[in-house]
Amino acid sequence: LLAAAGLEFEVGPVPVDENLDLFADPAQAALELATRKALAAARPRAERSPRAAWWVIGADTIVAVADRSGAWRLLGKPADGAEAAAMLRSLSTTRHQVVTGVCVVRTPDFVRHAAVERTWVTMRAIRAEEVDAYVRSEEWRDKAGGYAIQEHADCFVTRLEEGGYDNVVGLPVALTLRLLRESGAPPPH
Hints:
This protein has helices spanning 26-48, 81-91, 128-137, 165-169, 173-182, and strands spanning 54-66, 72-75, 95-107, 111-123, 157-161. The chain is an alpha+beta fold.
């Protein structure tokens, strides 16, 4: 998504605690985790090049589905196939939200610009054999909510509202470009 937007970048995963147990609000969780990731990636950059300006993007996507009481149950990345199957079953026939937090940190001064984007996703009923086949495909790995709309899970989705497709994929491009502009990053090529 970033390459298609004309950005040159490096990908650098960072070890950040992604435990969702401390959060009740999906937007708060996504924003906090995105900020943790951006700061964790920016610190070593600033240490290696203390005078250089770098723009570091951290992003985190959360899937949230309402339980019977109306409280949000936050779904991160499933640990295994059984958890992925349980997530898919819980999302079947729902209108749930996908929230991505994006944080841009500029070094060396660590100025932050951050925001969230929300997309409402409606899913049709997913049959048991479809859940089993999807879990076997392993497309669920490293995907919030246990599904990847950009892969075969798009056949489960009947409607998107607000936000956009790229948000459900995991990075709202227009929002990211806006945050980069606000932080003084050079424009994309």
